[in-house]
Amino acid sequence: MSIVTAAPAAEPKPLYTSLFVQVLAALILGIVLGMVAPDFAIGLKILSDAFLKLISMIVAPIVFCVVVHGIAGAGDLKKVGRVGVKALIYFEVMTTVALVVGLILAYLFGPGHGMNIDPSTLDAKALNTYAENAHKLQGGGIGSFLLNVIPTTSFDALSRNDVLQVLFFAVLFGVGLALVGGEKGKLVSSIIDAASTVLFRVMGLIVRVAPLGVLGAVAYTVGKYGVGSLKQLVSLVALFYVSVGIFVLGVLGGVMALAGINILKFLAYLREELTIVLATASSDAVLPQIMKKLERMGVKDSVVGLVIPTGYSFNLDAFSIYLTLAVVFIAQATNTPLSFGDLLLVLGVSLITSKGAHGVPGSAIVILAATLNAVPSIPAIGLVLVLSVDWFIGMARAVGNLTGNCVATVVVAAWEGDLDRAKAAKVLDGGELVDVTAG
């Protein structure tokens, strides 16, 4: 008679080893240092800059590898095209909904009413750099934008971290690799897969220093602007945070419910990544971890590899909310009346300009400037009004954008039949431990 004994349960890891706890502690420490020793806190910005530079160093090659592997791994190019078309349809629908949400809430709450700003009294010097980039972005309109998607050389796109251009080249390379097939195709695909594994491991090491990046970002912000730095434009900032919350819980929550996923459990599952993004105002920092988590909750890797990188340029939900909200805010603050035609023009232009946001220096202000330049009735100089709070708005903007991309990936996977619902339910209920930094 044999006796079977259950394996002893693994001892829980100490709480302080959790990345979420470390990031939260760094965030609190950053606030305290910013209040107690502002000069010292401002000097800690180097930690944030170094962390974001480390992330920037590796994002482009990761995007290239995962997109190529996703297309080649799917095998059937018809399926790749089908997933791509479904993703783009979803992106456009959600972008339009987000733009409308921003417009409606701006009109309902009127954050700019009562400011009575005379545009001639605003200092235009602060906008020089942004205006220059905005004119470059506008250029020849849609034709210029489409032409800019094509890189001069593939290496140039990688060296400049232009995700949209890297994505374009990766799609062509992936399709070419799938068409070659055979032993040669498998050899190149395996090399790219191996390179992707190494890059993800490197990113896992970089993410371990995320608490230092968060500490530097928060300490600098509080030290330079002060805890009460939101007072001047608190209504706009508060309304934007509420808008993102409504969109995530209401719109995205409803879409996820149709896919059989609870949005609150989904957000709890991604809490570590969302905390890092909130503190650093950058979603690039968690790209590999997000992709791994989505795969481990039952989303097919080929869908993740296609939708997430594409969404970084084409599915900026929170950014879209900000565009229309800020445009109406500036119009209200400068007592500029907007006709129904102006509003339709804002919506139409925003649908195009929002697609070029990722990778543009000072992207939010630049894209907002490009949008306003196409709507002559609104004084573009009004951008000066939102410069002082752009960092605070950027925190929620990054979180909202990332959440929207994660939801898009799950929804497209469910639409395509590439979502393991049983596994997703198990993972989101805490039935499976996921450590995305373990490689």
Structural account:
There is one protein chain. The protein is mostly helical. The chain has a single domain, classed as Sodium:dicarboxylate symporter (Proton glutamate symport protein). The chain is 73% helix and 0% strand. It is built from 21 helices and no strands. Helix 14 (287-296) packs antiparallel against helix 15 and helix 16 (317-333) packs antiparallel against helix 17 (340-353).
Walk me through the topology:
Elements: H1 19-36, H2 38-43, H3 45-74, H4 77-109, H5 128-138, H6 142-149, H7 154-159, H8 163-180, H9 182-207, H10 210-225, H11 234-258, H12 263-269, H13 271-280, H14 287-296, H15 301-314, H16 317-333, H17 340-353, H18 363-373, H19 384-387, H20 390-416, H21 421-428
Helix pairs in contact: 1-10, 1-13, 3-8, 3-9, 3-10, 3-15, 4-11, 4-15, 4-16, 4-17, 4-20, 5-18, 8-9, 11-16, 11-20, 13-20, 14-15, 15-20, 16-17, 16-18, 16-20, 17-18
Task: Provide tags for this entry.
single chain; 439 residues; mainly alpha; Proton glutamate symport protein; 21 helices; 73% helix; globular; disordered N terminus
What would you say about this model in short?
The chain is mainly α. Helix content is 73%, strand content 0%.
Average pLDDT, to the nearest integer?
77
CATH topology group: Proton glutamate symport protein
The fourth-level CATH homologous superfamily is Sodium:dicarboxylate symporter
- Cα(first) to Cα(last) distance is 41 Å
> Any guess at the CATH architecture?
Orthogonal Bundle
CATH class label: Mainly Alpha
Estimate the strand proportion. under 5%
Write the element-wise H/E pattern from the N-terminal end onward.
HHHHHHHHHHHHHHHHHHHHH
Radius of gyration: 22 Å
Total number of helices: 21
